[in-house]
Design brief:
Layout lengths: L2 H35 L3 H20 L2 E6 L5 E4 L11 H5 L5 H26 L5 H14 L1 H5 L2 H4 L5 H8 L4 E2 L2 E2 L1 H15 L3
Antiparallel strand pairs: 1-2, 3-4
Helix pairs in contact: 2-4, 2-5, 4-5, 5-9, 8-9
Length: 197
């Protein structure tokens, strides 16, 4: 190998080494910026769940003892009915629940509904925005997943936002009678849905 070739090779290797360092530095910065732009999906889920639980608890109100809701179901905490199913009146009257306990139950229910919506989102390859999740989770908590799954709201889940506003407004009845409380809640869910930032 001639001295000239050795110098050329040395310069080439030096250039290649610096180029690789530059690429690695760029990739490191790019990766960090991507992490900031796209937060951990577990963090996003937790944020949505907490927002939904706070919204639901605010809308449901709270009672530390059982009472019958307008639909005639035994209810406790923040609108919890499932816990009291199949209990006798005497048993129901002896139950007491703290707000902290109630929020844990609400979050457990909402988490199942979130996972259900997430599966739909993946299946249909369509993004549900954070506030849309909160609106849907509130609706599902209020009416139940089975009613949500059989609703036109569900059947057209990936249509335009304006379509949803119309569908949410249909769900304001308790035993055939219009409820001012449900009207207000649907309006607030629509506002959440349409104002996702």
């Amino acid at each position: 190998m001639t001295k000239l070739n050795a110098i050329k090779i040395k310069k080439y290797l030096n250039f290649a080494s610096k180029f690789i360092e530059g690429v690695n530095a760029f990739l490191s910065v790019f990766k960090k910026s991507q992490e900031q732009i796209q937060p951990n999906s577990q963090d996003v889920k937790e944020k949505i769940l907490n927002e939904a639980v706070d919204f639901i608890c605010l809308k449901e109100g709270f009672s530390n003892t059982a009472y019958k809701c307008p639909a005639g179901k035994w209810t406790i905490g923040h609108g919890l009915t499932e816990l009291l199913k199949n209990l006798r009146t005497q048993e129901v009257s002896e139950i007491y629940m703290s707000q902290e306990e109630s929020k844990k139950y609400v979050k457990a229910y909402v988490k199942k509904d979130y996972d259900y919506l997430k599966a739909l989102e993946i299946k249909h390859q369509k993004i549900i925005k954070d506030k849309e999740y909160v609106a849907f989770l509130s609706f599902m908590y209020n009416f139940g997943r089975s009613k949500f799954a059989s609703s036109t709201l569900f059947k057209h889940i990936f249509k335009t936002e304006i379509f949803y506003a119309k569908e949410f407004k249909k769900w304001i009845y308790i035993k055939g009678n219009s409820s001012d409380g449900l009207k207000k809640r649907r309006e607030e869910e629509i506002a959440l849905f349409l104002n996702d930032k």
